[in-house]
Specification:
There is one protein chain. The protein has 116 residues and is mainly β. The protein has one domain (14-107). 0% of the residues lie in helices and 55% in strands. The protein has strands at 14-15, 19-21, 24-37, 46-59, 63-71, 81-91, 97-107. Strands 1, 2, 3, 4, 5, 6 and 7 form a 7-stranded antiparallel beta sheet that branches. It is elongated and about 50 Å long.
């Protein structure tokens, strides 16, 4: 199936090792950052993306929950919000899984785009 894949090169990618969150060896966290090209006609041509992955619940016999927090501090108003994505993986049956993904924007300050 040649030509079916899409390759995106992200410059300056940095990924930390997974480390225990709050001393619990099952709950892990890591940080990542990269430069993302932007294609808007106005504004910056690229931005730094900062990502924090956290495993907040982990029991493979029950379910697993991760939260990914994404920040883009270099875009307009980028310092006053973060996008949080929660991924829950649970058993749907003995041989299948169910994945639920939700997302929200957390505002930490004022911005003209908050009302939009």
């Amino acid at each position: 199936m040649a030509g079916m894949g899409l390759t995106v090169t992200l410059p300056d990618i940095q990924i930390s090792d997974w480390s225990p969150l709050s001393g619990d060896l099952k709950l892990l966290t890591r940080n990542m950052s990269y430069i993302k090209p932007l294609s808007a006609s106005i504004g910056p041509k690229q931005t730094k993306c900062e990502i924090r992955d956290e495993t907040i619940y982990c029991d493979f016999d029950d379910y697993v929950v991760t939260v990914t927090t994404t920040r883009t501090p270099d875009v307009p108003s980028g310092g006053v919000f973060a996008v949080k994505t929660r991924t829950c993986i649970m058993w749907a049956s003995a041989v299948s899984s169910k994945v639920v993904v939700t997302s929200q924007v957390d505002w930490t300050g004022r911005s003209f785009i908050k009302g939009l």
